[in-house]
Amino acid sequence: MTPQPLTSPDPQAGAAVKAADRAHVFHSWSAQGLIDPLAVAGAEGAYFWDYDGNRYLDFTSGLVYTNIGYQHPKVVAAIQEQAGKLATFAPAFAVESRSEAARLIAERTPGDLDKIFFTNGGAEAIENAVRMARLHTGRPKVLSAYRSYHGGTATAINVTGDPRRWANDNGTAGVVHFWAPFLYRSPFYSETEEQECARALTHLEDTIAFEGPQTIAAIVLETIPGTAGIMTPPPGYLAGVREICDRYGIVFVLDEVMSGFGRTGKWFAAEHFDVTPDLMTFAKGVNSGYVPLGGVAISAEIAATFDKRPYPGGLTYSGHPLACAAAVATIQVMEEEKVVENAAHLGETVLGPGLRELAERHPSVGEVRGTGVFWALDLVRDRETREPLVPYNASGEAAAPMAAFAAACKKNGLWPFVNMNRTHAVPACNVTEAEAKEGLAVLDAALSVADEYVV
What we know:
Blueprint: H1 11-24, E1 40-44, E2 47-50, E3 55-58, H2 61-64, H3 73-85, H4 96-108, E4 115-119, H5 122-137, E5 141-145, H6 154-159, E6 175-178, H7 193-211, E7 216-222, H8 237-248, E8 251-255, E9 279-282, E10 294-298, H9 300-305, H10 321-336, H11 339-361, E11 365-371, E12 374-382, E13 387-388, H12 400-411, E14 414-415, E15 417-419, E16 422-425, H13 433-451
Parallel strand pairs: 3-14, 5-6, 5-7, 7-8, 8-9
Antiparallel strand pairs: 1-2, 2-3, 4-10, 9-10, 11-12, 12-13, 12-16, 15-16
Helix pairs in contact: 3-10, 4-10, 7-8, 11-13, 12-13
């Protein structure tokens, strides 16, 4: 049975919230007249609830950012304390919460990524990482993968590979896309991870050769692609990209906006591959999204470029004291409560085994991928051909099977992450075993709906 919300139902209040939203709020990535946003009354831990008394286990972590769940009392208290002490201050000054957040982040980033440039979120982090790479190298081009998402601002959306780029694409942006490894839907006709790794690296080198190595400033990759499908790169791939970048003087940028801060069972996903980039972007889990914050962790070499030369970039709210106080408290909570260890444990003992068991019983599940609390189910119409359950970038009636699956999840108290033909299991990193199993049980029932579309 779904737990009851912590507040009494109030449909009239919910109707007022919905009416004001529909009258005045312009929502991202949406046709405004075709959406019906849920009015949320509250949230706590891994759950949120509406004004009608329906409570949902959030298997999306917001947009994969509430890594410590909603309303953690220690982080809320830290924000309140900071607001009472120094609610805001300009970025050119040294401020305690800003300095401490930078120190705690730098302690956890790999290698010599010890300088932190703060932004308001992940897209701005990518914007500035690309700018730094171009200024550091004096080169214009950036390479990134087709199966990727890096943000919605001008440069970030061009670096992005998924269809949201299309309407915003700018041919003069200097971005070239390539195929990163993905064995389940291999563009290289590979049969093993070893083949996929070798062929993907050859393809990348060929792309560099034909674009001109001397024109390429950076290669930008999500360490483990998130929105595009949680495709863990095969062993040796990221190390191979690192070697290619070193050979051609290209800046290696890893995007850890989604995969960072415990999501994969490590502080950063790069630890799984023993690879250190030149620049690393972060956001989301750095403070569980309680106050907007992102940033770029910068290597010593690139930081030195701007020792005597001004860096031509900045934001009014860079390192905002409230956001940084939330980051300090979040990192402390993650240490004290062993949140990263919990994410690793759940992936190994509950989510991974549980999702694979679902795949054995549901013909709509083509593949299970992931680690920690970062998992995807690739849903298919035919396991033999691997035809996706819905076409690429489907909408309307073509997307009906995934819509039916999502509706079945919500009916039984689970809010699912659905993108194209996939559902992602991405709960909070501190979700309990019982909560994870509750989510698996609802997925089990909803996958029976998806099974009805299998040929």
